[in-house]
Amino acid sequence: MTRDSVAAATFNNAAWCDAVCRTHGRPGEFAEALWLNRAEVPRFYPNVVTLTPDGETQQVDEISALELPGRWGIKDSFATLDLAPLGFVELFSAQWIHFPSERRVPAHSGGARWVRVRDTAALTAWEAAWSGQPGTAGPDPAHAVFRPGLLDDASTTFLAAYRDDTLVAGAIAYRAAGVVSLSNTFFTAAEAGALRAELLVQLQAAFPGLPVVGYEHGDELAAWCDLGFKPIGPLRVWLKK
User: Fold this and answer.
1) Does residue 137 surpass a pLDDT of 70?
2) What pLDDT, on a 0 to 100 scale, did the predictor assign at position 178?
3) Most buried residue, 10, 84, 132, 188, by CB count within 10 Å?
4) CA distances from 110 to 113, 192, 221 (A)
């Protein structure tokens, strides 16, 4: 189950990366062992996501043959590759996490109003809060990571939590490969614990019968594990020098 869960989380993540890149007009391509984008990708996104723990030598050979511009990144989804000899440095390591569909979250209501982001203005406000600039005009559309095209993607759900008119939390849920991935979360610090629990309740209501996956490290990993997520495997992100 763990290997299958990591494989599903990995493919889901690659599909999400591709969805984001497509809205920038730069779609990637899927091969048997990896997802690849040969163009410049949005900030925080990799050019390569490995899709299998097998064939390490083949993957390293394929990566070494790539000639991509700038400081491009690789998500080593199974933490099996040594890319230092190819001129990469490890940016960070993390754990894939998994929350089974049958596990129930205790009912929790802290009073936040959870909604789905459905229009460009709300998405701009959401990205401003996610980037640590709540209440601002948000990013210039030409420099936004999350483009309005994602709002038309049936697999993508932007969630926002408001207390009165103040945006206090947000997340992205992406459905693919039989799982729902949770990413790009942000919470008002004083309410983070309660808001995480509320978010998980929202996900189970919106995606009944589907497990929730993601990846985290450090304090965030501990916080999600306290709510019932389980670490299921390591990953590493490498950056070209």
Assistant:
1) no
2) 97
3) 10
4) 9, 11, 22
